[in-house]
Design a protein that fits this description.
It is globular and about 40 Å long. It is built from no helices and eleven strands. The strands form two sheets. Strands 2, 4, 5, 6, 9, 10 and 11 form a seven-stranded mixed β-sheet that branches. A four-stranded antiparallel β-sheet has the order 1-3-8-7, with no helix packed on it. By secondary structure, the protein is mainly β.
Length: 117
């Protein structure tokens, strides 16, 4: 099992930046994939970005070029650097850890990101 704690959310103006952090309770270097998802009010949870244990990254089309996912194995922490934020990025952001390819993964409690002037 993996416990995840997200932090770094908040209120930011359009065009601004935020960095989210996800601290894991175990060595993320041995976890198949870590990811960030988001859920806006009235919408389904959607994938934002993932990073695998071999450092392969993937992004949703809506955030490509604006968001960057990274991992610090020494700190067992995954980050999501968000830039050029838009109001449509407003959502609760969740961290996910998949121990293996056939595992749905464990979830954190989420952190609210609000982009508004």
């Amino acid at each position: 099992q993996v416990q995840l704690v997200e932090s770094g959310g908040g209120l930011v103006q359009p065009g601004g930046s935020l960095r989210l952090s996800c601290a894991a309770s175990r060595n993320i270097g041995r976890i198949y994939a870590m990811g960030w998802y988001r859920q806006a009010p009235g919408k389904q949870r959607e994938l934002v970005a993932t990073i695998t244990s071999s450092s392969t990254r993937s992004y949703a089309d809506s955030v490509k070029g604006r968001f960057a996912i990274s991992a610090d194995n020494a700190k067992n922490t995954v980050y999501l650097q968000m830039s050029s934020l838009k109001p449509e990025d407003t959502a609760v952001y969740y961290c996910n850890a998949r121990p293996s390819a056939d595992h749905l993964g464990y979830w954190g409690q989420g952190t609210q990101v609000t982009v508004s002037s």
